[in-house]
Design goal:
112 residues, alpha+beta, Arc Repressor Mutant, subunit A
Length: 112
């Protein structure tokens, strides 16, 4: 089965680690492409391409401020990814609780 295009949805877009870094960097405030490139040690053309993918699936917003083009993370668009990942967080939480109970029971048994 062929892999889905990175521009098809948020899940495919964030599969690329650099895009996740960009989203993290843009989360606190909006920034220009050059700022992102400098902060993350990437070339400006590379950042621009990643931002276009993120913009295409709605994970970032863009606005013009004079000659500057500013990008920021669109938290609403990330919500489905967060909710999906939450399913696994609950799974791991249950697993870790089971391990903790087992370790405590073993420790109690060995302390006797």
């Amino acid at each position: 089965m062929p892999r889905a295009s990175t521009t098809s949805d948020a899940f495919n877009a964030i599969a690329e680690p650099r895009r996740r870094e960009i989203l993290d960097y843009l989360a606190p405030e909006e920034r220009a492409v050059g700022d992102v490139a400098l902060a993350l040690g990437l070339g400006q053309p590379s950042v621009s391409k990643h931002l276009q993918v993120l913009l295409g699936v709605g994970l970032v917003h863009v606005r013009r401020d004079g000659r500057r083009v500013l990008y920021r993370t669109n938290a609403d668009a990330i919500k489905p990814v967060h909710e999906w990942a939450g399913t696994f967080a609950r799974y791991w939480s249950r697993q870790l609780n089971r391990i903790k109970r087992h370790a405590e029971a073993t420790r109690t048994k060995n302390d006797r």
